[in-house]
Every structure is written in structure tokens, then in C-alpha cells.
């Protein structure tokens, strides 16, 4: 049983890492993404999730998804297996949601490209919040093992739930920040440039070396295409030319389509 669980864990983890790589590459293609390719990956991702849960339909694997503790106290390694598989599968499901967003914003430019990044980031922080809850039902059942004594089991359960609450409060804060970003209509690292400002700057984007599209004036007074500078700020906080810090120190962006690959075990 342990060997079987080990190989399944390796398989679903490898599949998730490959899926994350695919999603990032499709996001980077921007307007060159093909609907048929995105739909194909979407079907594969969904079938993979349903296939894993169908295979384990007679086990307690799916219980924690609904915040329900397993029916019986799981052995330690079985608890770890349950948590890892669920944690991996919900990330796979979130990647499917992100593919739908890439399909919706397939030809998006300017404001819509920036909105795509905000939506991808919101999905990721919603996922991180949900994943923070996922291990709780499993460890709740595990720590309430009366074989170790009522006092010990109650103490460990209380300590675990206390630390878990602290983690969840932090995740709620990050999710709320990502949600508020959707209501922000202006570009929070500058403003849209006027035609006079664009002409004065030469009407040539220093990033793509082409005529500016939806030009954005940064706080340092340099102007770039909104698409170009939005993609730049997915990785940086400074101006591409003068390196002045113009983007506020905000939550991490997941606008490149990436998914956090760290396991949420506790």
C-alpha cells in the first residue's frame, strides 16, 4: 500500500509540474494562443482530476474537499498521502479555471490584458485560501486519536487549530487585496498618457520598439505600451529605462499563469 501511494504521489506531482509549465507557456503566447489547443488542455486537466477521484471513490480521499474529516483515524503516512493528492488535484482544477480565463482573454490587449493578469492572480489567491483549509479535516481526525490520551489529543488539536487560524487570516488578507485590485480602473503604477505626451516622447515604445498602443505614463515620466509595461510589472517593480521604483509593494502577482508549487501539508 505504501509503495502504491508513493508512486501515485510522484505521478500526480509530475503531472501538476508539467501542467504548470504548459499554462505559463500558453499565457506568454498572449494573442497567438489557439482556442483548440487551450480546449484540448482543458479537457485533459478535467479528465485527470475526475479520473483520480474516480479511482479512489471508495476511500476517504474526497472527504476533506468538503471540509469533512475522514471516517476513521488515518495512519500518519496515509494522512500525508491524502493531503498531498487533494492539494495537487485542487491545483490541477484551478489550472483548468485559468485555461478558461486564457480562452476568454485570448485576444485581449491593453486594459483587457491587465485584467487577465488580475483575474489569474485572484484565482491563485482564492486557491491558496482554500488550500489552507484542506489539511485541517485530516489532521483534526488524526490528532483526536484517544490512544495517546484525551489530554494530549485535545492539546495538540487546539494548538493545530490555533496556528491554522493564523495562517488562514493571512490568506484572507491576500485574497481581499487581489479582489480589490479588480475594482481599480486606473493603472496603479501610473496613468494613461495624453497624445501630446506621446508625441513628445517620440511615439515609440522602448520595450517592443513599435508604435505605442494604449500608452501608459509611469510616475517617473517614461511612457510605454500598456501591454508591454503590464507584462514587465508581472516580474519587476522598477521602470524598464531608469530603474526607478514605480510599482507599489503589493501582493505577488500570478499574472504569468503560474501556480504555487509548494505543498500545503499542515
Task: Please describe what this structure looks like.
By secondary structure, the chain is mainly alpha-helical. The protein folds into two domains: 2-182, no CATH class; 190-232, Herpes Virus-1. It has helices spanning 2-28, 35-55, 76-104, 111-133, 135-143, 150-182, 195-201, 226-232; strands spanning 190-192, 215-218, 223-225. The chain has a three-stranded antiparallel sheet. Strand 2 (215-218) and strand 3 (223-225) form a beta hairpin. Helix 5 (135-143) runs antiparallel to helix 6. The longest helix is centred in the middle third of the chain and has 33 residues, at 150-182. The two termini are 23 Å apart. It holds the Pfam family zf-RING_2. Residues 205-243 form the RING-type domain. It is found in: Membrane.
Number of domains: 2
Residue share in helices? 55-70%
Low-confidence parts lasting 5 or more residues at pLDDT below 50?
Answer: none
Task: Profile the largest sheet.
Answer: 3 strands, antiparallel
- End-to-end gap: 23 Å
In terms of DSSP E residues, the strand content is under 5%
Mean pLDDT figure: 86
Name the shape in a single word.
elongated
How are the strands of the largest sheet arranged?
1-2-3
Roughly how many Å is the radius of gyration? Answer: 23 Å
Membrane topology: Multi-pass membrane protein
Subcellular location: Membrane
Pfam families: zf-RING_2 (PF13639)
InterPro entries: RNFT1/2, Znf_RING, Znf_RING/FYVE/PHD, Znf_RING_CS
Amino acid at each position: 500500500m505504501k509503495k502504491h501511494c508513493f508512486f501515485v504521489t510522484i505521478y500526480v506531482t509530475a503531472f501538476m509540474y508539467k501542467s504548470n509549465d504548459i499554462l505559463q507557456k500558453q499565457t506568454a503566447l498572449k494573442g497567438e494562443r489557439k482556442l483548440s489547443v487551450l480546449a484540448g488542455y482543458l479537457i485533459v486537466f478535467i479528465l485527470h482530476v475526475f479520473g483520480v477521484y474516480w479511482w479512489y471513490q471508495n476511500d476517504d480521499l474526497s472527504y476533506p474537499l468538503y471540509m469533512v474529516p475522514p471516517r476513521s483515524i488515518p495512519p500518519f503516512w496515509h494522512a500525508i498521502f491524502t493531503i498531498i493528492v487533494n492539494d495537487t488535484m485542487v491545483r490541477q482544477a484551478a489550472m483548468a479555471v485559468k485555461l478558461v480565463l486564457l480562452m476568454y482573454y485570448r485576444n485581449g490587449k491593453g486594459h483587457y490584458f491587465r485584467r487577465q493578469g488580475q483575474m489569474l492572480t485572484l484565482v491563485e489567491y482564492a486557491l491558496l485560501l482554500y488550500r489552507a483549509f484542506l489539511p485541517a479535516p485530516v489532521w483534526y481526525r488524526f490528532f483526536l486519536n484517544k490512544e495517546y490520551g484525551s489530554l494530549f489529543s485535545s492539546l495538540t488539536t487546539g494548538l493545530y487549530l490555533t496556528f491554522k487560524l493564523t495562517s488562514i487570516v493571512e490568506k484572507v488578507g491576500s485574497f481581499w487585496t487581489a479582489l480589490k485590485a479588480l475594482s481599480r480602473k486606473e493603472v496603479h503604477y501610473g496613468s494613461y498618457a495624453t497624445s501630446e505626451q506621446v508625441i513628445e516622447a517620440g511615439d515609440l515604445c522602448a520595450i517592443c520598439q513599435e508604435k505605442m498602443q494604449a500608452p501608459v505614463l509611469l510616475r517617473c515620466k517614461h511612457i510605454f505600451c500598456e501591454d508591454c509595461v503590464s507584462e514587465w510589472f508581472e516580474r519587476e517593480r522598477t521602470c524598464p529605462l531608469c530603474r526607478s521604483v514605480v510599482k507599489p509593494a503589493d501582493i505577488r502577482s500570478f499574472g504569468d499563469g503560474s501556480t504555487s508549487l509548494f505543498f500545503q501539508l499542515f
